[in-house]
């Protein structure tokens, strides 16, 4: 691990160096953001996001003494450096989105950290922290399908913009999002778990019926493919101002110890991001007026013994990451030597992009991320 970290540090130095001397940077034009897209990749570790395939983990999944270089996974995703490996795993993210349109925080080897403030380090507390701007450790302490008692930034934006429910929409693979994303049932559009999605396009109708014919190993989680296609159909047809896409295949495969499928899920998520971005930038309404934030609810263990797991006692599960791609923000590549970011700042950051102060709804919410709005 030590050598790998050293390599990251040396190779990535040129990226985003202006963070060291931001006074010389031209300030971005303000207020071009008219639409928000939030994407989460459940439990995607910083190790794979910043370093691609983890050889120690791969080795731990093979028979004693087996050569990892003989595996399909190695052929698909291995390369000599962390930069090459992550680009093989998520080429759109690294070679297009972060090179041309956005930046990523959370590479601790470069002096950038994104951390949870909730102590639980599992999904509902993480998503609630992202969406409400605050950890509520004593109230939100399970993944049970219980209504979120706290209003979310999605509900806040819907109210501030006086939008109908179709204009603020959440599509999620995990059914419990029905309870997480809104404290008032029906405030926004939510489609989660094995829920049918009613849409005039016959292709989407077919997908909606197929999802129950293609069960996953997990009762409350459908395949991300359905979630993605429903979300894009909604985007095309209803043109929401705020879209939340919550993907989750990777977390479930990781829990099952399937490192191959965990990595394939991340690679697939990258292709979904590419298609989503292609739609956004190819569409007159969304082009150059859409801010995309991509993040994660929690990390996972750091070692071959605990990479499958997360939770209060799992070291590493507090380490997360955050991508911001916005026509209003000039940051590119990786953050380095930057102030820590907390997960509870994401909600206020989303609101700020549309010109609103989340403190109106929740004075206890984390503040908008200073580095993102430097110069505004
Ligand atoms: Zn999990």
Strand order of the largest sheet: 5-4-6-1-7-9-2-10
Average residue-wise pLDDT: 92
What is the straight-line distance between the termini?
Answer: 38 Å
Helix content: 25-40%
How much of the polypeptide forms β-strand, as a percent range?
5-15%
Bound molecule kinds, no repeats? zinc ion
What is the helix/strand order?
Answer: HEHHHHHEEHHEHEHHEHHEEEEEH
User: What best-fitting shape do the alpha-carbon axes yield?
Assistant: globular
Number of strands: 11
Figure out the total of helices: 14
Content-based structural category = alpha/beta
The biggest beta sheet is recorded as:
8 strands, mixed
Low-pLDDT runs: 1-29
Radius of gyration: 20 Å
How are the secondary structure elements laid out?
Elements lengths: L1 H11 L22 E7 L4 H6 L3 H6 L11 H6 L4 H8 L1 H11 E4 L8 E2 L7 H10 L20 H8 L7 E5 L4 H4 L8 E4 L9 H12 L10 H15 L3 E6 L1 H7 L3 H24 L7 E6 L23 E2 L1 E4 L7 E2 L6 E2 L3 H8 L23
Parallel strand pairs: 1-6, 1-7, 2-10, 3-11, 4-5, 4-6
Antiparallel strand pairs: 2-9, 3-8, 7-9
Helix pairs in contact: 5-6, 6-13, 10-11, 12-13
This protein binds zinc ion.
Zinc ion binds next to helix 12.
């Amino acid at each position: 691990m030590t050598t790998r970290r050293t390599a990251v540090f040396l190779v990535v130095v040129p990226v985003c160096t202006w963070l060291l001397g931001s006074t010389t940077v031209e300030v971005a034009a303000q207020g071009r953001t008219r639409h928000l897209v939030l994407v989460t990749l459940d439990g995607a570790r910083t190790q794979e996001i910043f370093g691609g395939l983890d050889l120690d983990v791969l080795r731990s999944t093979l028979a004693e003494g087996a050569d990892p270089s003989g595996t399909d996974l190695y052929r698909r995703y291995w390369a000599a450096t962390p930069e090459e490996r992550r680009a093989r795993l998520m080429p759109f993210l690294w070679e297009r989105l972060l090179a041309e349109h956005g930046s990523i925080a959370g590479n601790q080897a470069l002096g950038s950290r994104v951390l949870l403030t909730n102590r639980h380090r599992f999904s509902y507390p993480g998503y609630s922290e992202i969406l409400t701007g605050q950890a509520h450790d004593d109230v939100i302490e399970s993944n049970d399908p219980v209504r979120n008692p706290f209003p979310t930034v999605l509900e806040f934006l819907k109210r501030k913009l006086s939008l109908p429910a179709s204009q603020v929409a959440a599509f999620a693979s995990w059914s419990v999002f029905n309870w997480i994303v809104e404290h008032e049932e029906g405030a926004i559009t939510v489609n989660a778990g094995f829920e049918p999605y009613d849409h005039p396009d016959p292709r989407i109708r077919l997908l909606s019926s197929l999802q129950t014919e293609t069960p996953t190993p997990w009762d409350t989680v459908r395949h991300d493919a359905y979630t993605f296609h429903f979300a894009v159909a909604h985007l095309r047809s209803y043109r929401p101002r705020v879209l939340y896409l919550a993907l989750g295949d990777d977390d479930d495969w990781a829990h099952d110890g399937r490192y191959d499928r965990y990595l394939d899920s991340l690679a697939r998520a990258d292709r979904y991001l590419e298609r989503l971005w292609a739609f956004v930038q190819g569409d007159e309404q969304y082009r150059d007026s859409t801010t995309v934030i991509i993040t994660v609810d929690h990390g996972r263990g750091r070692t071959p013994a605990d990479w499958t797991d997360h939770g209060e006692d799992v070291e590493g599960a507090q380490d997360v990451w955050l991508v911001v791609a916005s026509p209003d923000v000039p940051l590119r590549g990786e953050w380095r030597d930057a102030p820590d970011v907390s997960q509870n700042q994401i909600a206020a950051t989303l609101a700020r992009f549309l010109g609103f102060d989340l403190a109106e709804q929740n004075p206890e919410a984390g503040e908008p991320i200073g580095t993102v709005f430097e110069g505004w």
